[in-house]
Amino acid sequence: MADHRAAPALGAPAPAGSAEDVLSSNRRVSSPFMVTKMQREAAKAWDKFYKAHEDRFFKDRHWTDREFEELKADPPELIHGDAPVLLEVGCGVGNTVFPLLEKNPALRVHCCDFSLRAIELVKKHPQYTSERVHAFVYDLVQSRDHGEMARALAECAAWPPVSTLSLIFVMSAIPPDDQLPVLRALVQVLPIGATVVFRDYAHADLAQLRFHTRKDAQWSEPSLLSESHDWYRRGDDTMAYFFTRDEVQRLFDAVGGLEGEVEEVVKTRTNRRTGAVMERRFIQARLRRVA
After folding, report:
1. pLDDT value at position 59?
2. What distance in Å separates the CA atoms of residue 22 and residue 130, rounded to the nearest whole number?
3. Where are the stretches annotated Disordered (predicted)?
4. For residue 192, what pLDDT is reported?
5. What is the pLDDT of residues 47-76, one digit of tens each?
6. Distances from the Cα of 47 to the Cαs of 54, 116, 170, in angstroms?
7. How far, in Å, CA of 165 to CA of 65, rounded?
8. What is the pTM of this model?
9. How far apart are CA 291 and CA 289, in angstroms?
10. What topology is assigned to 28-229+241-289 in CATH?
11. pLDDT at residue number 218
12. How far apart are CA 260 and CA 17, in angstroms?
């Protein structure tokens, strides 16, 4: 579970009209049968994706330590002075993990994904070493018992406790009814003082608008999966969710024991050749476990 594979290219023009006008159009909703089928076969869809693209689709995320100071090579504060340990869930093929390992020689990383093929690609990476990376298959939705994650982390008993949990474009790939149980189970494995960093897609992001400007054939299942949530099916049968800032705030409040800020980040770029203006919207959060 990683980035939006259906996100438009940066050169794609913004849809005409206001964002809310665009989102109010083309509102056909997929059948309950398709929604159930997608959730049941989500891991298979991601395995097919990695079989087709391997590690060639996503760019490495060299920006994460600029956005989150907890991921810097010299973080301002660590638990009990221990070396930093990151828990990266939904790691894909390591596009966040390996740039951070290169910048921070002291960092160690637990990373998991529910695609076996993705984890196999992580382990084939030239920077992979078991002394610094513990990669394992883990289904966030099915494994709601935090004890199962705790047992996975205990496989590296000599490592310090996790200092940072990263949720980078992960929760958007999880069905809305499963988001709170998944988040609660993850936070429960963190020690007091650990940090959660979060970034995901926001309501009215360009990628969401394009779901509504792309007309579905009448005989096909529509992309929209819910009348009450910004939840969609991509062309490769994986899922995409677009959050409001208040939704994310409510999720973290419901988990409890966390303090920090949740904000909406808007990034605008203009294509110099076409003049197209592209507005990307993200929800970003940094919280510390205090109880």
Report:
1. 67
2. 48
3. 1-23
4. 95
5. 776 666 666 556 679 889 889 988 887 765
6. 10, 7, 16
7. 13
8. 0.85
9. 6
10. Rossmann fold (3.40.50)
11. 62
12. 35
Beta bridge partners, 164, equal: 86, 195
219, two tokens:
């005989």
pLDDT of the residue at 236: 78
The ranges assigned to domains in the chain are 28-229+241-289
How far apart are the C-alpha atoms of 198 and 79, rounded to whole Å?
19
CB within 8 Å of 15: residues ≥ 6 apart: 22, 206, 209, 210, 212, 213
Task: Specify whether the CB–CB gap between 109 and 86 falls below 8 A.
Answer: yes
Q: Which of the residues in the chain have pLDDT under 70?
A: 1-17, 43, 46, 49-59, 75-81, 215-219
DSSP string, 139-167: -TTT---HHHHHHHHGGGTTSPPP-EEEE
The size of the chain, in residues, is 291
Residue 120 has what pLDDT? Answer: 92
Residue holding tokens 């949530």? 229
Q: Where are the beta strands (DSSP E) in the chain?
A: 85-89, 108-113, 133-137, 164-168, 195-201, 231-233, 239-241, 258-270, 277-289
Which stretches of 54-188 are DSSP H helices?
64-67, 97-103, 116-124, 146-153, 176-188
